[in-house]
Amino acid sequence: MLPLSGIQTSIYNALVPALSPVPVLDEAGPNQPFPYLTIGETISVKSDTLREQAVDAEITIHVWSRQPGAQETQSLMAIAKDALHDQRLPASGFQWVTTTWIYGQTVKDVDGITRHGILRFRVLTFQAAAAAPPPPPPPQLSGTVDTTGGMAVVWHSGDKFTAEVVGKTITIAGADYGIFQFISDVQVLVDPTPPEASGADYVILL
After folding, report:
1. Any alpha helices (H) in 70-143, and if so which ranges?
2. Domain for residue 64, yes or no?
3. Among the three residues 93, 128, 163, which one is the final residue of a domain in this structure?
4. What is the share, in percent, of the chain residues with pLDDT greater than 70?
């Protein structure tokens, strides 16, 4: 799991309405009007647990302004910080735990005109491990049997009896009986005595 594209998309979707009409860009062209923001560099590290795949990502937001002084840059930085800090943003394919603002900085660009604001955020994400498949059902014999009103249970259809049924419980028409003797693959003896029946459903869990 490396959800960097999903993280950038969610951050973009959070910043655009908060900063409108100031544009939020992936990359600015040479003639881009000021002010604007760009979503910049990302650093990600593995943070897996025994049960989860996890990624901690640090992402940088850049604010660009040519307004004299730092006021516009700082104002846009504050809006961006409020839009992201402590937020659990919508995500697809992974779980977004939280967003934490780490630091902010303002500098004057090398052209001596452009003000550059820098914000860095940490995003914690995880993807739960796939659930273990359910255990297979216990082995069992099932079918129908006839009962004679005595201790004998006679196979009628379905799975025939095996010697390992001795000591097991046979459920006949919803009632439980203990198997104490294996006569053959078509007959066992049970206790207590079941009522007489023909073609009653049975199950034995092995």
Report:
1. 71-84
2. yes
3. 128
4. 97
Mean pLDDT within 72-99: 94
Residue 1 has what pLDDT? Answer: 63
* pLDDT above 70 for 7: yes
Q: What is the tally of structural domains in the chain? A: 2
Q: What is the CATH number of the domain that holds 8?
A: 3.30.2000.30
Please report, for the domain that includes residue 175, its CATH number. 2.40.10
The strand pair at 36-46 and 24-25 is best described as: parallel
CA distance 161 to 179: 11
The parent domain of residue 195 ranges over 140-205
**Sheet containing 115-128, strands listed edge to edge, beginning at the edge strand earlier in sequence:** 24-25, 36-46, 52-65, 115-128, 95-108
Q: Is the confidence at residue 50, as pLDDT, over 70? A: no
For residue 149, is it within any domain? Answer: yes
Closest CA to 74 of 115, 40, 111, 33: 115
pLDDT at 105 over 80: yes
Report if residue 134 sits inside a domain: no
What's the rounded Cα separation, in Å, for the pair 172 and 155? Answer: 12
pTM of the predicted protein model: 0.61
Q: How many whole angstroms from its chain centre is CA 9?
A: 20
